[in-house]
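RETRY 2/3 - previous attempt timed out on the joint model. Re-submitting the same 284-residue input unchanged.
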Amino acid sequence: MNLKIAIQKKGRLSETSLKLLEECGINISNGSRILKATAKNFPIEILFLRDDDIPQYVEQGVVDIGILGENEVLEKDKNIDIISRLGFAACNLCLAIPKDEEYSGISYFEDKKIATSYPKILTKFFQEQNINVQIEEIGGSVEIAPSIGLANAIFDIVSTGSTLLTNGLKQVETVMKSEAVLVAGKNLPEAQKKILDRLLFRIKAVQNSAENKYILLNAPNDKLQEIIDVLPGMKAPTVLPLATAGWSSVHSVIKEDTFWEIIEQLKDLGAEGILVLEIEKMIL
Ligand code: ATP
Ligand code: MG
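RETRY 2/3 succeeded.
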C-alpha cells in the first residue's frame, strides 16, 4: 500500500518539492521527466502534475496528498485540508496599478477593471471590502494587461517587484501571502494516514534542522551558569570539562533567528572558541 503524492511536474515548485522529499530520505531514481515514480525505500508513489490540477485530484482521492502554492489551494477552493506549511516558494499576491497613477487607498479600485489569473481570491477580497470591480480572467502575462488596454490594474504574484517595474506598474496592496503547503484529502484510508504521519514526522525533523544550529563553545567555569542561562538547548546544554583547568566545553542548540543576539551575549560573558554547525536532522 502506497501513499500517493502529487507534486508539480515543471515549474517553481518542482525542484524544491523533490528536494524536500529527498531530505526526508525518500529516493526517486527515475528522474522527474515521467508522470509517475515509486520511491525505493518508502511506501510512496509520486505523480508529476500541473499545480492547477492538484487540488481537484486530492479532493477526488486520485492522489492522497499534494504539494502546491497556498494561492492555488485558495483559488481552486476544493474540499481539502492544508496540513503543513512548508516554508518555500514564498510570494505575495498583490494589486498593482500604472506607476504614474495617484493611489488614494483601496476605494481607488471602485468600478475598475482588473486582470488576474486568480479571480476567486480577488472576488472574495473585494466583496469583503464592499467594492465593486470588474474582473478580467487571463491565464498568464498578466503584467502587460494595463499597457495593452485590457485592464486598469492587475492582481498577480509578486516576489521581487522587478517584473512590475519593467511593465510600468507599482504595487499598491498585498492581498495575501503564500508559501508552499502540503494538502491532504478529507477521507484518507487508515493505511495512508499512517504513512502520512511518518512523512510528517520526517518533514518536521527537516524543518527543525533548518531553523536551528548546533553551538559549541568554551566557557570559563566562573561564568558557566550565566552562559548556560543564555543557551536554552533542547533540554539543558551539555557541559563537559576541558583539559585546561577552570574551563568547560558547552554544547547546545540555538534558533537561527536569535542566533547573532545570543552569540554577542556569549562573547560578552567570556565565551571563547565558539563553533556553530549546521544540523542535518533534528528529532525532538
Ligand atoms: P503549472 O504549469 O504547474 O500550472 P504555473 O505556471 O502555474 O505552473 P509556477 O510559475 O511554476 O506555476 O508557480 C508555481 C507556484 O510557485 C505558484 O502558484 C506560487 O505559489 C509560487 N510562485 C510563483 N511565482 C513565484 C515567485 N515569483 N516567487 C516565489 N514563488 C512563486
Ligand atoms: Mg499552474
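The radius of gyration is 25 Å. Closing ticket.
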